[in-house]
Design brief:
alpha+beta, globular, 16% strand, four-stranded antiparallel β-sheet
Amino acid sequence: MKPERHHWWPECVSEFWKNDEGCVHWLWPDGKIVQSPPKNFGVIGNGHQIRLGNAPGETTVWDESFERDFQRADDNFPAVIRWLQELERRHHLSRTPMTDRFMPVSVEDERLSMLAESMISLAVRSPMNREAAVSVAEYYRGPLPERERNTLITMNMRHSHKEAVKQIGTRGKFVAIYSPARELIFGDGFYHNIRSPVNSTHSPKILAPLTPDIAVLFVRPMAYTKMPRFFTLVIDADEAKKLNHAVQVYSRDKIYYRSEKPEVDDAYVQSKHLEYAGLTNPIENLISYVPGTQTRSHFGF
């Protein structure tokens, strides 16, 4: 296998984050900002290759690449995003209760399947998931040599995308979230519970920012009503700030934004993939409002 640049933030998505100068901003935990064309961001060398040789440059007959596993998602991503941009949604007064702001939209299975596969591909490829893929080994063995560490990561990631897509399918609730008042951000971590290797996915959930104006929430709780399956939701600036906070909590050292620079949160300063706990989780609060989820334990979003 030849060395390759593999994008965990695919170019077909990052293109939607360009500013008027054709660039995206990378915000570091220390506040430093780097501006560059989006294709230069979200890249890992040989990130989707399994190399079992003991020395650099050594090859074996078992070496393989699973980059092709993400090809269909990447091929469909531009059409998925353009479709989301055109969907009908309702703008509400700020005093409108959250429970009254979800607009049901009829969507065919093929559309939902494409959307789900694209979102899952972002979760599986994310650096946050890569760290999770080797966390158990490092917990018991301590720091690992880089070559062995990378091999464990990719071997645990292999088949994760296919298995998660098969298990999740189109069953659950989808919400297209629109933020006209404040730009959303993306990072090397975001809110989801997809972990490699994927064995059995119970109550999967993903909240992925796809453009500076659109994020998509997917959730399949233990109990929910089947219909309707898809909603649109328009959020205000304060609610967008809460979604951006989640990205800062789950990201380690890469926050990307188009033009509205977010304030560096105390969580992001720690340079770790953190998680919400207990009642401090605004995403779980948002999920509790989704019609038909039967999780009415919200505390305000």
